[in-house]
Amino acid sequence: MLRNVMKDLKEWKKTSDRKPLILKGARQVGKTWLMKDFARQEYQDMVYCNFDEDESLGDLFERTKAPRRLLEQLGLINGLKIKPGKTLIILDEVQECPAALNSLKYFHEQANEYHVVAAGSLLGTYLAEPKSYPVGQVNLLNVYPLTFHEFLQAAEPTLTTLYESLHPHEEIPTAFHERLLEAWRTYLIVCGMPECVSSWAEHRDAGRVEAIQKELLSVYENDITKHNKQINAGRILLVYRSIVPQLTKENEKFSYRMVKAGARAREFEEAIEWLVSAGILHRIYNVSRPGYPLSAYAMMSNFKLFFFDTGLLKAMAGIENAAIVMDKAFPFRGALTENALLQQFIGELAVPPYYYAPDVTHEIDFLLQHQMEIIPLEAKTGKTKKAASFRWYIDKFDPQLAFRYSERNYRKDGKFTNMPVYLAGRTDFLA
Fold first, then answer.
1. Are residues 219 and 324 in the same domain?
2. What pTM did the predictor assign?
3. Which CATH number is 129's domain given?
4. Which of 4, 32, 41, 119 gives 20 to 30 Å between its CA and that of 407?
5. pLDDT of the residue at 82
6. Domain tally for the chain?
7. CA 122 to CA 366: how far, in whole Å?
8. Given this model, what pLDDT does residue 229 score?
């Protein structure tokens, strides 16, 4: 399975000021597979340490903080000589051994010629704790579910070349457009969890995919109840289970009252942050004005929450596959499309998306900061042309670039460009 993040791993290996690397991301997004595949491609050997499977490994890191002594012991256990730049040291499920997480600091200070990568379930929540995080001593790399492009590479290889051959400012032949739309709708159902994509690629069985998705959702609920520390698990679950009704609302703005009657921000902010740190939710802030840089105008108490994988969101909402395949209209379709588009933007852009809702009558789904441009983006379901708020924004602010994503083909429409939804991950089209 080809993953775009592999190029980031290879760049990390080549960087002269490289530090130990931590992979962050939700459970089951493929961090372990990535680390092992990276080792197979780029190194002579690997030393794989899983602190969840072998608790005795933790004892090594508890006994000493000296990297060279640790390397000697790990070499003895694995029956090989660990060589700088030739052996990749993998510390998996590192959250189970705080001493191993802390050892990354000493690897950087005392033995940085050795290549070390670490990952773990819910690691983002552990790194949020100041005592656990080796500040300034590590590099961080986020791992997300597969994008549409990655999905095509795994499940629709014949379409991949076609997809990669598309050029900005060119209308796509109708036959190709319809084939890519069909693949996009399949992607909405399967989406980007590696196990789901692999299952679909091999079996073409939607029932198997749905079973995996439901199992993963159960795993996340179990994580919430078992692995949080001081934060009330009940509150985290209430926020987690409110995502579907939150996104069903017309404006999708997060409402504490939909979590629990009479709920206040101070009661649930930690729960929200736990889910965001765990990689399960994405928080998108409203801005007071569409200015550069967008972060300067973020309204921290005014935000939306999206799920990290659209296929899981579909399963959580209980949407029938037929509704998507047959392009049926239903209230949650818009939220599903927005979630899928956001999934493409996350990780592809240097700055996370925002949205703009200055009043009750106007809302721009996303604002993208690409280079120094502020780009308004409207997400539309199906082939609808209605975009009153979008046209209002364009008339008021006269942006250099503006895009409406829908199932219509590529075309210029006055001051904005209609972009097929399946091109959301192609940042080269944002020009």
1. yes
2. 0.94
3. 3.40.50.300
4. 4
5. 97
6. 2
7. 28
8. 66
Which pLDDT score is estimated for 242?
96
Total count of residues recorded for the chain: 431
**Spans of the chain, pLDDT less than 50:** none
Tell which of 80, 113, 142 closes a domain.
142
Q: Are 251 and 102 in the same domain?
A: no
What local confidence, expressed as pLDDT, does residue 146 receive? Answer: 97
Instruction: Find the domain containing 60 and state its range.
Output: 6-142
Torsion of CA 191, 192, 198, 202, to 10 degrees: 20
